[in-house]
Every structure is written in C-alpha cells, then in structure tokens.
Design brief:
This protein is an alpha/beta fold. About 30% of the residues lie in helices and about 20% in strands.
Length: about 150
C-alpha cells in the first residue's frame, strides 16, 4: 500500500465529530492518530451511534500526551490546520506522508503547539464565519492531500 497521510486530533472533545472523522479516514484510507486526553469516553453512546462499524482500534494510534506525539514525530513533517494560519491549504504542497494536525473543537491547540509547527494552514471562509466543523475540515483537507499525491 502507498504511503498515506495521517490525520491527528489534538485532545478531541466532541464524540460525534471524532466518530465522523474515524469514518472519513476509514473510507479514504488515511491513518488516524488521537492525542489524549479525549474529552469523552469511546464507550459514549453518541460516539458509537456515529462511528457505527468503522471503529477499528488497531488502525487508530493513541498518544498519551502531546509530548509523546511530538517526540515520536520529531523527524516527520506536521502540518497544523488552524483558523490562525496564514497559508491557504490549496496553495500548500502536501506530501503523501504528512501528519495533518487538527486542534480541539472548543479551543484549537495551545500557543506552545503553534510555536512547534512551521506549516500552519487555513481553509478560507467568509469574513464573518468563525470556523468550520472539524469533521468537515478534515474531509476537505484530506481530500486535497490525497488529490495532490494521486492517492484518490
């Protein structure tokens, strides 16, 4: 199998969104990584209702903390998706093995994480819009990464 992008979620806090992202990654062939702690239990009924039969614990990598995540990724490129980004995601050259990091739905990532990552991208939105749903953002950016790398 070709190298595929990795979608990483920083301390996700809405079970339905995480479940929808698991389904997206399963359907599009991306690896999923979750940086703990999660703001919910994987046994949450809201999570189970959305994830359906797409949950495969063997295909999801869990990191105990951001420190563990960054230690393991020290020789890999991490791309941060953030409303504070200055580069439009369509103007960025994704690599097939990128790790694309998304922050918490409620708060994004802390400033210390912003400072660790050089590539900070945004999805352009209407001027008065605050942010897209994270599951929608993952689908949009993952599709672009796969397209650029001829993986679709």
């Amino acid at each position: 199998m070709k190298t595929r992008p990795k979608i990483s979620l920083y301390e996700p806090d809405i079970p339905q969104n995480t479940a929808a992202i698991i389904r997206t990654c399963a359907c599009l062939g991306a690896e999923l990584e979750i940086i703990e702690p999660c703001g919910f239990l994987l046994s949450d009924k809201r999570f189970k209702r959305v994830v359906m039969d797409y949950m495969d614990y063997g295909k999801i990598k869990f990191y105990q903390s951001a420190e563990h995540f960054f230690e393991e990724k020290k020789n890999q490129r991490i791309v941060l998706m953030t409303t504070k980004g200055s580069i439009n995601y369509t103007k960025f050259n994704f690599k097939a093995d990128d790790t694309i990091l998304f922050g918490r739905e409620s708060a994004g990532v802390p400033e210390k994480v912003h400072k660790l990552i050089g590539d900070r991208l945004k999805i352009p939105m209407n001027e008065n819009a605050r942010s897209l749903n994270i599951a929608s953002s993952v689908a949009i950016v993952l599709a672009e990464s796969l397209r650029q790398n001829n993986l679709m």
